[in-house]
Description:
The chain has helices spanning 50-62, 116-121, 129-139, and strands spanning 11-20, 23-31, 34-38, 41-43, 66-77, 85-94, 108-114. The chain has 3 helices and 7 strands. It has 157 residues and is an alpha+beta fold. The longest helix is centred in the middle third of the chain and has 13 residues, at 50-62. The protein is globular. Strand 2 and strand 3 form a beta hairpin.
Amino acid sequence: MNPITHRPLSAITVAGIIFREQRFLLVEELIEGEIKLNQPAGHVEPGESLIEAAKREVLEETRHHFHPEALLGIYHSNPACGPRIMRVAIIGSVDSAPDPSLTLDAGIISTQWLSADEISARRADLRSPFVTRCIDDFLQGNRFDLNVLHSFTGLEK
């Protein structure tokens, strides 16, 4: 293996794709001093399954309980240099109202229900190309059974 070209995967992330009444649930977050739009998303914590991570991230970033329904897709960013990211996007629904007993995660400014056109108009504010690709794939009808996701936490024999 060539040590110059070998780089381990830097991050595995999950994202919740929530669509209701022709609008997607996004978060406005402060990233390096700039306000960015993203699906509720974040890193998979040690010992956590992909589904558990998606439920936790959506709850922490939106205060909504997330109910996974389908896998949208797996997305990989592999630039020539810098961090490499693999995102697992999971479609689901949320309860009608946020949980009032919770506060938004640090760095999250607000939640926004935006149409695909409104998101497209704010393309410069998007955190990454993952956002629009997930929306495009959702609108094209991509859906995969959640049973294709398997997580091992290291406790299995």
